[in-house]
Description:
By secondary structure, the protein is an all-alpha fold.
Amino acid sequence: MVVRAWLALVEFARIRRERSRTRSQLSAMTDRELQDCGITRAEIAYELHKSAWRK
């Protein structure tokens, strides 16, 4: 039981770090670069603000 909780916490921390890196990379992109990728700043905000437990 404790191991499962610890693994869940580790996974939560990993997802938060990954989203933080992604947020930094995406914020450095210009609107034109984002348009070329087919995403908007609003879509980025929505995805990055989802709970780490949701996919």
